[in-house]
Amino acid sequence: TVTLNDDQFENLTLEKHDDGVWVVTLNRPEKRNALNLATIEELITLFSNAPRAGAQAIVLAAKGDHFCAGLDLIEHHDADRSPADFMHVCLRWHEAFNKMEYGGVPVIAALKGAVVGGGLELASAAHIRVADAGTYFALPEGQRGLFTGGGATIRVADLVGKSRMIDMMLTGRVYQGQEAVDLGLAQYLEEGSTFDKAIALAQRTAANLPLTNFAICSAVSHMQNMSAMDAAYAEAVVAGVVNTQPAARERLAAFADKSAARIRPNT
Length: 267
Ligand code: 1HE
Known about the structure:
- The chain has about 270 residues and is of the alpha/beta class.
- It has twelve helices and nine strands.
- Strand 1 (about 10-15) and strand 2 form a beta hairpin.
- The longest helix is centred in the middle third of the chain and has 20 residues, at about 85-100.
- Bound molecules: 3-methylmercaptopropionate-CoA (MMPA-CoA).
- GO terms for molecular function: lyase activity.
């Protein structure tokens, strides 16, 4: 088995709850949680190993007033990178965010303040995003003389559509509030603490069977990359494994004997 502990990380904090919910917190508030290479490496370690280290659901939170200011522009400026160097930096970002999206453990992002540039790329690799009234989304790359390198062309375009993403990149347009939720940038707009809401969602999620969550948080993403024919085939294979898992028998028996909760409309 693999173990992960808080003392392995400098730019993140890791807190493990008894119910299988892990809280991972971006911990560079003085830099608005800008993503330097060291943080990306820690995210790779975390998301590569969490699925085998007992995490049932992960809340991705942030210290300070802002979720994440994106690429560490100062590090990037100081490093004066070659094209090949920066390509490799981007490949490390992809490694981190792909492990997050495809790893099979639900990741719920508790957003606040700026979710911009690479910060939006990070958030869009989470399975659930919770925003509040102060959360705002933007792609400032255009203004900075940059281009997205952390998967926005895939994931942000997937969330809001190609044209809206191009507009965000060209004009620096900021989305927030209900409009951001309506576009799909977040699934929840919370009046209270996004952290508390994310924890509640994580606890609910962690009550599902791990193999079921694994399928939801890896198969759906993989299948989106396939042709419809291949996705239907893969779906059948995944459902074959998941829907016959011994651990599900109890839940099915509870439905059959009418002791399981029924699905009802919200009141
Ligand atoms: C940073 C960064 C950063 C803050 N890299 N150091 N992202 C952006 O273009 C967003 C840039 N940041 C901002 O627009 C603002 O900083 C915030 C809206 C996020 C926060 O504003 P504020 O007024 O609270 O903070 P601040 O005074 O601007 O910054 C506080 C400190 O954080 C300051 O450092 P200090 O040492 O002078 O105190 C800032 O330099 C530092 N800081 N943001 C480095 N991003 C794989 S490609 C991805 C491409 C991108 O992500 S491009 C988008 C980059």
